[in-house]
Amino acid sequence: xxxxxxxxxxxxxxxxxxxxxxxxxxxxxxxxxxxxxxxxxxxxxxxxxxxxxxxxxxxxxxxxxxxxxxxxxxxxxxxxxxxxxx
Length: 86
Known about the structure:
The chain is an all-alpha fold. The chain contains four helices and no strands. Keywords: Membrane, Transmembrane, Transmembrane helix.
């Protein structure tokens, strides 16, 4: 499999928004960090609208987005629980 510019761009778009959202919410909006999962899902749907509804790539993007949401949710709830205890 060759790394094309489109593949690299899609990979960056899958990684950068959730990391940025978690960091921004952790720094300035820590009480509302649980919203990062919903905002990440919204960003994914907006960024990958074409890929989500193209029949050949639907399964791949659905799995990638679910894994991304699980990781974002785990990070957000870990930060939320730490701040709630401390």
